[in-house]
């Protein structure tokens, strides 16, 4: 089996385009407005329409579980919940904590001449707002996020990665997606794109390896030494 560090060096050496999942690798979007609070708010929107929530969405702390439930009911309810989620995401990014070393990674990749994209299940507007406020937006060639209510278009579906690949005029195999969820690794696999799992919580490392991430990191800073291929050796 290839040692993880060699795998990381190899996957970054052959990736001209870096695709960053947003929530996790760039910031913790729900660090200031906790996800369970948002999920409860979205449940209120559903029940206000006279719809009873059953299954995992009835108690889940993940807002996306409520969106997925709404999608099983009707397009109108899906739109209502997606709009509600976008509204809170736009507030959440204003109080979100940056991920340690994310800025340094993005700047190192940019300085190395790589094209950078965000590929997020969060609202595109919210991702753009965060990156603009952080002064990072000019370093991104593409900002891809949720623009339609249908949750089936979100990762692990390859749809969003496909959008990024198109905007970058890249080949899927020349990109690498850095994500902190199994759905990121699955989406990358479905798109024909290599992936790096960011194991920011205990237990993720083993799961990323199991689902076939090309490499796994536990700190975004681990990427930085491998993002210097185009700088002069004397620099
Ligand atoms: Mg994530």
From TrEMBL:
GO: which molecular function terms? hydrolase activity
Key word Hydrolase present in the record? yes
Q: Does the keyword Hydrolase apply?
A: yes
Spell out the InterPro entries in the cross-references: HAD-like_hydrolase_sf, HAD-like_sf, HAD-SF_hydro_IA, HAD_2, HAD_sf
Any Pfam family: HAD_2
UniProt keyword list: Hydrolase
Entry-linked SUPFAM superfamilies: HAD-like
| UniProt superkingdom | Bacteria
Q: Which NCBIfam families match?
A: HAD-SF-IA-v1, HAD-SF-IA-v3
Know the name of this protein?
Answer: HAD family hydrolase
